[in-house]
Amino acid sequence: MSTSTPKKHKHGLNMPVFLTSAGLITFISLFAVLLPELADKTFKAVQSVIVDNASWYYVLTVAIILLFSVYLGLSKLGNIKLGPDHSRPDYSNFSWFAMLFSAGMGIGLMFFGVAEPVMHFLNPPHGDGSTVDAARQAMRLTFFHWGLHAWAVYAVVALILAFFAYRHHLPLTLRSALYPLIGDKIYGPIGHAVDVFAVVGTLFGLATSLGYGALQVNTGLNHMFSSIPVGTTSQVILIAIICALATVSVISGLDKGVKMLSELNLGLAVVLLLFVLLGGSTVFLMQAYVQNVGSYISNIVGLTFNLYAYNKTDWLGGWTILYWGWWLSWAPFVGLFIARVSRGRTIREFILGVLFVPAGFTFLWMTVFGNSAIDMILNQGNTILGDVINKDVSLSLFAFLEQLPMSGLFSHVALAMIIVFFITSADSGALVMDMLCSHGKGSRGVRYRLFWSIGAGVVAIALLLAGGLGALQTMAIASALPFVTVLMIAMYGLLKALNVDAQKQEILQQNLSLPLPAQGSGVWRERLHVIMNFPSRGAVSRFIDTTVKQACQDVATELQGLGVDARVLNEKSGSVVLLTNHGSEIDFVYKVSLSSHAQPEFVHSDDDTTSTASDDDTQTYYRAEVHLGEGGQDYDIMGWSSEGVINDIVSQYHRHMHFLHSLR
Prior knowledge:
The chain is mainly alpha-helical. It folds into 2 domains: 15-499, Amino acid/polyamine transporter I, CATH 1.20.1740; 523-663, no CATH class. It has 21 helices and 5 strands. Strands 1-2-3-4-5 form a 5-stranded antiparallel beta sheet. Strand 2 and strand 3 form a beta hairpin. Helix 5 (132-146) packs across helix 11 (282-305), helix 6 (148-167) runs parallel beside helix 13 (320-340) and helix 8 (189-224) crosses helix 13 (320-340). It starts with 14 loop residues before the first helix and ends with a helix.
């Protein structure tokens, strides 16, 4: 695997992926619209076959994904960065946590925040409903479905995308994870197939979310304006309107506006959460939150592997398998977002952040809304609320808010939030599918994002017409089946690449002390002057362009004489790079780059090599830092002799060859 110089990937639309994905989606949509009864029967049969025969596969693979993510976070592999070794996070911890927090908020929590806990409470998979034990079980199951398993799926997909894109300069698509296994073949039919599975899964995951959103908006509007009927026709119209708004956003380039709406929505979500928390039994809810988390953690192993093999029930297919399929089909969408904001972080902090920040907020949301609703039914005798939710799950949030003061105001707030989540999901989903069809870069053409924006709405409408919410759920489960197989292979590719990186780091650290220039009698004074020199930009640039470049050229010439393909490159940034090509093995890179740093307070410039008044900042000095294929090595060679630079190159090349030997 070439970690430093992978084949230069293309830009623009990837026609095989785009046409195949569009063809499959068009075929399924036409089938659903033209033959709705047959489509409904087919979808039900597909779901039945998957639930009856492949439930174990979904449960096992999601369990493996969770264990895999925890292993990566706790092992030595967690020290590897999502980017070069010298990279720093693009966002502060606070901003990053806020974005992860945002990723955890969406249509799903609005739809199921009240509904799922109450439905499990009234109709648990085992035992009697409407009891204290059923309440405990309801919250435990809700946490199970919305907790670490879901975020482990997102984390692993995001990690695969970020690691290969930012550390090894491969496309920001799932195919890159197969590079350690098949090399440049990822740019051929195998890679195209992987991306097709990701696109199709993403679209049906998005369509499922749009379907849930349309259903909840429809019932919410009917709840507040009785003249608006509830039905498939209304939901189709709503999907069309929302996708039209998302399309306007795509055409007009209002991405910043959508971002502002998302941030506003997040603020409204916090306000709504605090309203219910502070307006209800605050102490009880915080006690329940702590106890629910403890109950979830203590039962997580049993919940993870429970297939009800000894107590057959339809509950598993309607809940756990549906969720696992939904999370898997939705993973490329959420994973790509997380990957784009996580460059420069170690795998350990990435895993810990992605697993626990959004899950912690989700647990709080489910506790505040779910436990409040259960308390109304169990302890306050409000059985009507339970009857309403049992009859129409999409009405659950509005029926719950109606029991609280200022219900009219906050019902409007909730409806507005759902609509905005609806719009931003459609717009962002179109962007992700466009990227997956365009080598991870985007097609740079509005018409393709427009196609996916409209396509998501068309698919959601087609499936609603064919079989309502059941058809949407079926396609979420079915589309995840091929994707999860690809994901398991991708995880193996990721693990292989991570082990190679870790092995190289160990070899580089063997007997590795700070490299020194050539030594000899009387040289110590010269070395001391070099150490205490804080040179200007111009001085370092001249050093790189003369001494370093000549040293690299001398080594390249010698290697060429030994039959090695070696060359020296000048980069626009002023860096000099020595590159050797080792064919199918990992290439060697030795790069010297100029970097700026703040001068220590005790420094006083007194010669022409230090910072002068002509510099933009007299408090800045510059270093000639060495970078290898893995990134910056955090040492400076400014002031070294040509012989000293050559010796350093040879030493690093020696380590690299030892590393290649260890891999053979």
